[in-house]
Amino acid sequence: MTHEAGIPLGIRFKLLSDTPQDSAAQVVGDVVVGDYRDLDTLRAFARGCDVITFDHEHVPTEHLRALEADGIPVRPGPDALVHAQDKGVMRAKLDAIGVPCPRHRIVADPEDVAAFAAEGDGFPVVLKTVRGGYDGKGVWVVGSVEEAAEPFRAGVPVLAEEKVDFVRELAANVVRSPHGQAVAYPVVESRQVNGVCDTVVAPAPDLDETLALRAEEMALNIAKELGVVGHLAVELFQTRDGRVLVNELAMRPHNSGHWSQDGAITSQFANHVRAVLDLPLGDPRPRAKWTVMVNVLGGDYPDMYSAYLHCMARDPQLKIHMYGKDVKPGRKVGHVNTYGDDLDDVLERARHAAGYLRGTITE
Amino acid sequence: MTHEAGIPLGIRFKLLSDTPQDSAAQVVGDVVVGDYRDLDTLRAFARGCDVITFDHEHVPTEHLRALEADGIPVRPGPDALVHAQDKGVMRAKLDAIGVPCPRHRIVADPEDVAAFAAEGDGFPVVLKTVRGGYDGKGVWVVGSVEEAAEPFRAGVPVLAEEKVDFVRELAANVVRSPHGQAVAYPVVESRQVNGVCDTVVAPAPDLDETLALRAEEMALNIAKELGVVGHLAVELFQTRDGRVLVNELAMRPHNSGHWSQDGAITSQFANHVRAVLDLPLGDPRPRAKWTVMVNVLGGDYPDMYSAYLHCMARDPQLKIHMYGKDVKPGRKVGHVNTYGDDLDDVLERARHAAGYLRGTITE
Questions:
Q1: Beta strand pairing status for A14-17 and A30-33?
Q2: Terminus of chain A with fewer CB atoms < 10 Å: N or C?
Q3: pLDDT digits (tens, 9 = 90+) for A239-262
Q4: pLDDT at A40
Q5: pLDDT band at A49 (very low <50, low <70, confident <90, very high)
Q6: Of the CATH numbers 3.20.20.70, 3.40.50.2000, 3.30.1490.20, 3.40.47.10, which one belongs to the domain with range B103-162?
Q7: Which chain B residues have a beta carbon less than 8 Å from that of A1?
Q8: CATH assignment of A166-358?
Q9: Is A87 marked within a binding site?
Q10: Which residues pair with B141 in a beta bridge?
Q11: What pLDDT score does B134 carry?
Q12: Which of B1, B4, B7, B287 best probes binding to A when mutated, by most A CB atoms within 10 angstroms?
């Protein structure tokens, strides 16, 4: 999707891909298949690139530092990206710059988890491995000291967090360029199902203006303080007592910003490319009153293409974005966007299409 | 741009390109370099394709028939496409189905041109080679029998047409699918400079509703009668006495429809892909009150990239579409789209950006 956004600007991508079947490898012309964890591979790949960016956070921080030392601009740079790679580093930094977070602490073992729980309202407690988690992986909600054993088995540091009593989840998406220009997308509501983002509504319905502004300012401030270049998604909890707390950070175009492809004047992908190239940023404002994104998860039918017929005929305004992935049950294989003036209608259209593509609606 | 529109639907393109440097070859992954005039090349290329379409009209009609005979769906098919390839065939067909055209006749030599002129209002007369012309090439406006010699030198049939006293040029863009579904984009005004499209305004300002409807119906009717599959652009003259006459036909996404990338709910490229694949068509209606497209022509500066800084900073809503072509003076190398509620503002922004990218504005 970043390649797609780069085409109109004549931006040529070279892709380092795990396999020739990866989504991006299916559409980018210049593909190198290799392992991003191997420094020699990265160095060979980086030769001749003007700048390097990512569609995930998993490239080892020390490899990015090595590329920078070789003179290759890496955006976002390792000093920023580490905050999206390591939840321990992220929490420490957000504490230091005064950004409100759930109560948290690195914990050593199940007994330490029990102590952490006792310091607050007791169990349940959220445990996260500090590196490598996403979409609910690497995250446990534990109700007792016995249940707290599992996260420690991998032998990586574990972060304990209070289980926040939230009303809903929000996301504040911002983009920042190397010369410090920044833009903020409207704060969106993100609805999760089984720990995976299901629906995003832009802008977040019935969000108090002051709270929305505070969330945008918070995201812009985090981008500045962490030296982010490119897109930053700040996932937030809106608490019952009217605060916003930072849940997670992502430094790349993010699922909570996919609505912008069809709903904003400039999409998150276009602005990420512009930021990474230090070009002036585009207008992030919405083009419609409401835009809804619903993720398409893999279902029981491997062929989603035949579902296009129904979905496109039913809703000529529907925007389908499929990733070319093999369909596996529960895997994110695409998303749909709808927009319009009537939120109920926009939500219904997006949900119907995503459900039909998945195979859970067969009317 | 068609590839760009196919990405979200997971449509995989295989490209037959003249050179590895062609615009499309820079962004499509699967490229075969070869000559579209060579049937063996076409046949080898077509093997394994589900369907074939074009970004120009120059593939020989008989080769397309051969591919069809091989069982490869060609969309638009040769029986339709020939009307966009051969202006003589096109005029004969439009006459037969009762579509108003400028007065015209195939002419044999300069004396025949003089006779054609005398049958109407005399010189000037427009002469066109029946095949191979575009962007003013293959077209002559001749003021005398002496000037009429040139077009006959190539030894191809020549079509004579009255020089229409037009108020302005319009274009009616429609898309038709194999099962006969069709959509019509709003009729646009197309402003030419030196025979090359310069500016497109969507919808055409101050266009009488009845005339707009007549133009849309005419384009839909042509698409149906000619059996067009995919995008059809009907270039029109709006005459001083309130009629619309067909100037040219193009059967592919067309310059007069580029505004739709940022100005319509579904772009001409997305709808062309959907039609070619016999998928239901998307909504062609505009998303903004006014959308303006201005072509970017090559200027004296080979580096257009540095102009991005000024253009993007001046207008955060600007949409730049560059084709990755080598910059040659006067060559179409890209276009810009702007949209909004105030036509003067939208026009000024597009013209400024295109002029700055070309180098004719350096403020």
A1: parallel
A2: C
A3: 999 999 999 999 999 999 999 999
A4: 97
A5: very high
A6: 3.30.1490.20
A7: 7-8
A8: 3.30.470.20
A9: yes
A10: B126
A11: 61
A12: B7
